[in-house]
């Protein structure tokens, strides 16, 4: 089945879903600044992190759910709290939608395991949304998943100081319920932009994604 | 008529100290706020709209507050596709122009608050300009 998928402008959303239903297998999608949707989603391969409850967070935790992934660190005063607040609002919008958010999760991946312990991550992510998941892992594992998603990060640990610079991709990655890298949201992000597109995307994918 | 006038004068006098400082500087600040942080986070960010009302440039060179250990002027930048922060030693405000300190851009980085701050709290930060002028600004903590 051929599905041409690059997503649409916000206005195109409703039209897009309608067009898709009409011809069954093909959707005419327009280039979109906010979300890039991959025509052939790439299955992710094994990785291993630990979540905020010290449980293993691996590939299996991405299966059966749509996962929004964001890389960051808790000692980040500007971009991380801004993004998590936006994602919390996007989550709220998805909860209120007819399909709901039962099969949706938001995962904050700390690239700064040196400072971000499980308990710190728990305090941090649940402040924004009680359902958010916070995970981290060693450098090899972080590099592993970041590499699969085309994300980048750089931590300049400076011995003797609590404050060292961290650089990270500010995009939000969307992994589908078959654990495939499905789409990416580019900054600047906004909650409505994300939730509206996700709604259309889920209608496009329908049950076949799960 | 006369008492009304007096009330008006009284109001103007009451509002004078801050207004006068701002006018003297030629700089005004609006929508000043600090983002509330999750528990245990000792780094906060302050935002505002700086307006230069004068016909000459103004240069913001530092900021300080008794509510934090340090206050620095930062900017969120994108480098090699990655987002990070860099220290900005000074910012020039062009004549009759405004400059936005907003999430994802310029911000005051507020390190180690002396007490836990919650939405609704107000904190004072002093903005220092070249030439010695200091502008006190009240920031509202918002969620």
Account of the protein in words:
The complex is a heterodimer of chains A (210) and B (143). Chain A is built from five helices and ten strands. Helices cover 32% and strands 24% of the residues of chain A. Chain A has one domain (36-209): Glutaredoxin. Chain A starts with 11 loop residues before the first helix and ends in a 5-residue tail after the last helix. Chain A is globular. In chain A, the strands form two sheets. Chain A has an eight-stranded mixed β-sheet, with helices on both faces. By secondary structure, chain A is α+β, with helices and mostly antiparallel strands. Chain B has 143 residues and is an alpha+beta fold. Chain B is 17% helix and 53% strand. Chain B has one helix and ten strands. The relative contact order of chain B is 0.25. The mean pLDDT of chain B is 88. The interface between A and B is medium-sized, with 27 and 26 residues.
- Which second-level CATH architecture of chain B applies? Sandwich
Rg of chain B is 17 Å
CATH architecture of chain A: 3-Layer(aba) Sandwich
- The CATH topology of chain B is Immunoglobulin-like
Could you tell me how far the N terminus lies from the C terminus of chain B, measured between alpha carbons in angstroms?
45 Å
Essential attributes:
heterodimer, A: Glutaredoxin, 5 helices, B: alpha+beta, 1 helix
List the helices and strands and how they pair.
The complex is a heterodimer of chains A (210) and B (143).
Chain A: H1 12-23, E1 35-43, E2 48-51, E3 56-58, E4 66-72, H2 79-96, E5 104-110, H3 118-128, E6 133-136, H4 139-149, E7 153-155, E8 166-168, E9 172-175, E10 180-185, H5 191-205
Parallel strand pairs in A: 4-5, 5-6
Antiparallel strand pairs in A: 1-10, 2-3, 2-6, 4-9, 7-8, 9-10
Chain B: H1 2-25, E1 27-35, E2 43-52, E3 58-64, E4 68-79, E5 82-87, E6 91-93, E7 98-101, E8 106-113, E9 122-129, E10 134-142
Parallel strand pairs in B: 1-10
Antiparallel strand pairs in B: 1-2, 2-7, 2-8, 3-6, 3-9, 4-5, 4-8, 9-10
